[in-house]
């Protein structure tokens, strides 16, 4: 019983750390854009661009990561699976909506300023992650949410779906980190204190990138921890048993 409580404690401690990190990622990105780059607008100017990093971090990283972990909650292990499928799909759709708005902000800014699109490694990583995200959501909706797909097809596609879920998050984190770096190179190129001298903006933005990396790693850790996966029917590890309280209840 003591081991069971420890297992439950570690799980929910990881979730608390994840929620705190995700909130900090969005707040730090918003503060960076407001304090050092003048805030936000929706007018095609650089202030519209400032929405891009905030929306991409909030959508492609934080909300996407949270949506990926729906089936790791012990409450989802018993009872009907459909409500959890709907929550999983809805959170991912919300994440995709924020992502599309983030892309719209940067493309409008580039069009307004006559700036080329999709030439940097950052943009290639980002657009690849978004394209795979769209395919992943459509595949999940068509195969796992709608009732038409046979069990054998779901069994074949499930490992692929899980792999690309983790791969898309990894690509999104890489795109965010490279985007932070790219923005700093542009904004501090002709500054009094260049990027190489680590002015306060560089320290703050680099720290934001580290928070995003930590968030992504923690999500991947929880996703890959076999003892926290939704058990197959009739199969449950010791820790999964531990995450359910004696007497039929759950912790």
UniProtKB/TrEMBL annotation:
It is a multi-pass membrane protein. Keywords: Electron transport, Endosome, Glycoprotein, Heme, Iron, Lysosome, Membrane, Metal-binding, Oxidoreductase, Translocase, Transmembrane, Transmembrane helix, Transport. Gene3D superfamilies: 1.20.120.1770. It is an enzyme of class 7 (translocase). The keyword Disulfide bond does not apply. GO terms for cellular component: late endosome membrane; lysosomal membrane. Its cofactor is heme b. Homodimer. Transmembrane reductase that uses ascorbate as an electron donor in the cytoplasm and transfers electrons across membranes to reduce iron cations Fe(3+) into Fe(2+) in the lumen of the late endosome and lysosome. Reduced iron can then be extruded from the late endosome and lysosome to the cytoplasm by divalent metal-specific transporters. It is therefore most probably involved in endosomal and lysosomal cellular iron homeostasis. This is Lysosomal membrane ascorbate-dependent ferrireductase CYB561A3.
């Amino acid at each position: 019983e003591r081991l069971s409580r420890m297992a439950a404690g570690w799980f929910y401690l990881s979730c608390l750390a994840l929620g705190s990190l995700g909130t900090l990622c969005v707040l730090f990105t918003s503060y960076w854009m407001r304090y050092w780059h003048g805030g936000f607008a929706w007018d095609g100017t650089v202030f519209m661009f400032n929405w891009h990093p905030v929306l991409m971090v909030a959508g492609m990283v934080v909300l996407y990561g949270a949506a990926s972990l729906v089936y790791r909650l012990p409450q989802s292990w018993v009872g009907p699976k459909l409500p959890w499928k709907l929550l999983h799909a809805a959170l991912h759709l919300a994440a995709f909506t924020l992502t599309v708005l983030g892309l719209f902000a940067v493309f409008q800014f580039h069009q307004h300023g006559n700036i080329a699109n999709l030439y940097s490694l950052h943009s290639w990583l980002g657009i690849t992650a978004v394209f795979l995200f769209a395919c992943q959501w459509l595949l999940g909706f068509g195969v796992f949410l709608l009732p038409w797909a046979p069990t054998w097809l779901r069994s074949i596609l499930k490992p692929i779906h899980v792999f690309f879920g983790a791969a898309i998050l990894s690509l999104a984190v890489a795109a965010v980190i490279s985007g932070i770096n790219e923005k700093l190179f542009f904004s501090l190129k002709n500054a009094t204190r260049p990027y190489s001298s680590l002015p306060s903006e560089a320290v703050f933005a680099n720290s934001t990138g580290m928070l995003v990396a930590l968030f992504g790693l923690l999500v991947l850790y929880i996703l890959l921890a076999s003892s926290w996966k939704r058990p197959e029917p009739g199969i449950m590890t010791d820790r999964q048993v531990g995450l359910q309280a004696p007497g039929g209840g759950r912790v």
